[in-house]
Amino acid sequence: RVMSVSVDAGTSIVTLAVETHYRDLVPRIANRLIALVNQFNLQTRKSGARARREFVEGRVRAATADLETAEDSLKRFLEQNRSIGSSPELQFEKDRRQRQVDLRQEVLLSLEHAYEDARIQEVNDEPVITVIDHAITPDKKSSPNRTLGVVLACLLGGVIGVSGAFVREFIAHARGHDSAGYEQLLAQWEVAKTQALNLLRRNREA
Q1: Omega before 88 cis (within 30°)?
Q2: Against a cut of 0.70, is the pTM above it?
């Protein structure tokens, strides 16, 4: 309730404002909130990096096993076929198995790079929020606006004074020229005053 947040989509700047009755509490609330948001972002990013690292780690193990299988297959083929050069069919089979080894080596190499990147991201603790202006203790109150209050009070006082003058003039005129109307006005005033006092009393009791 004491905080307000605005976002400038064009500059991606988020502005946080805090307003309380306690001057020294304002910067503590704002700076603490920024720290908590940063902490949440770091934990979220690390959780995502940990999930990626665990996934890639599993793929590295699988790719290593696939490469070992392909290498064993090529090794057995070479051991069983000493004179490959004299047979086009054997040369074709050797090339095919060699391509399988090369392909699995490339897959394993790319997965190992991805695994290292995921490990780096998992331990990265750099903040993802850039603080442009840190919150500081304000020099003066943001509200209430005393100048505006004085102006409104003067205007209200003027309106009440003018209205009171008209009412006094009306009462004086009624007293001198219309006694019945004057008595009726006094009776209505007493009723209104009684109702106002009763309302104030009920509000006080509530």
Answers
A1: no
A2: no
